[in-house]
Amino acid sequence: MATQSAPYQRELIFGAAIRIFHWLRALAIFVLIVTGFYIAWPFLVAPENSDVLVQGYIRAAHQIFGFVLVAITIVRAYLFFFGKSDIERRSFKDVMSVKSWITQLKSYLWMGHLDKAGVYGPLQFVTYLAISVVALLICITGLVLYANVYHEGLGGLIAPMANWLTALMGGLAPVRIWHHYLTWVFIIFVVIHVYMAVWSGIRFKHNSVDSIVSGYDYHKKK
Ligand code: HEM
Q1: Rounded to the nearest whole angstrom, what is the distance from the C-alpha of residue 79 to the centroid of ligand 1?
Q2: What is the pLDDT of residues 147-183, one digit of tens each?
Q3: For position 116, which CATH number holds?
Q4: What is the C-alpha to C-alpha distance for residues 31 and 37, in angstroms, rounded to an integer?
Q5: Which domain holds residue 33?
Q6: pLDDT digits over 55-111, tens only?
């Protein structure tokens, strides 16, 4: 049980929606990378084999999790702008302040403390913004690929837009290649993201990884 003299202070930083969507998105990205690479190189079916079910199931999983990612990308953008807590939005103040950038970069080099207006430092905020744009682009290229195969329902509805984008990108092959390149951006991001989450928890004596599970941050009392 926490006592009055405990040196650490507990603070709720992430609400349930943000935590649930974080892990759902992590699961979707993991499944999409694995199934996407299989679609690109379907090694389990020999070329002369007419049994295409393996590929079919894997493509189905890719599309299901693809639509999960599309939904999360929309909901997450909504939560950022209109969520009850402004702890994420407040970080934008630091992005616009040169002083905050210098403070963060110095603190990463073990010089001084990291003082933030919100929950993210400026470099972290800009990185998350960039990966959100990449998520949007991979969703758009994924939907363009989808619309080229499924001509009814949603596929038919977005076909005019998908055809326009396909022409703009120089054909379906470049759309596929961009979808593939963007996959690598996610792989590189995930490695750096996990490393930085663990590192910053140790460097700044916060429980950064736990907070996206429990919602709570623990830090020394000021
Ligand atoms: C992190 C997210 C995603 C990753 C890592 C990913 C990865 C991939 C990869 C590597 C391929 C194979 C490309 C190639 O042939 O070289 C692919 C194909 C495809 N992806 Fe995604 N994808 C993602 C999201 C989405 C989304 C959101 C959708 C749409 C709902 C989608 C729909 C498709 C479709 C329709 C194909 C083509 C399947 C086929 O040609 O049979 N993907 N994806």
Answers
A1: 25
A2: 999 999 999 999 999 999 999 999 999 999 999 999 9
A3: 1.20.950.20
A4: 10
A5: 10-217
A6: 889 999 999 999 999 999 999 999 999 998 898 999 999 899 999 999 989 998 989
Q: CA-CA distance, 211 to 46, in Å (whole number)?
A: 46
Nearest CA to ligand 1 atom 7: 36
Q: Report which protein residue has its CA nearest ligand 1's atom 16.
A: 40
The packing angle between helices 122-147 and 53-82, to 10°, is 140
Q: How far is the CA of 172 from the centre of ligand 1 (A)?
A: 13
179, 180, 182, 184: which to mutate for ligand 1, most atoms within 8 A of CB? Answer: 179
Alpha-carbon span 168 to 162, nearest angstrom? 10
Q: What is the CA(126)–ligand 1 centre distance, in A?
A: 25
CB contact set of 11 (below 8 Å; sequence gap of 6+): 216, 217, 218, 219
Supply 47's token pair: 């070329």
In the predicted model, is pLDDT for residue 4 greater than 70?
no
Distance in Å, CA 139 to ligand 1 centroid: 8
Distance of CA 133 to the CA centre of its chain: 9
Would 3 be classed as within a structural domain?
no
Count of domains observed in the chain: 1
Using CA positions, which residue lies closest to atom 8 of ligand 1? 36
Q: Rounded to two decimals, what is the model's pTM?
A: 0.90
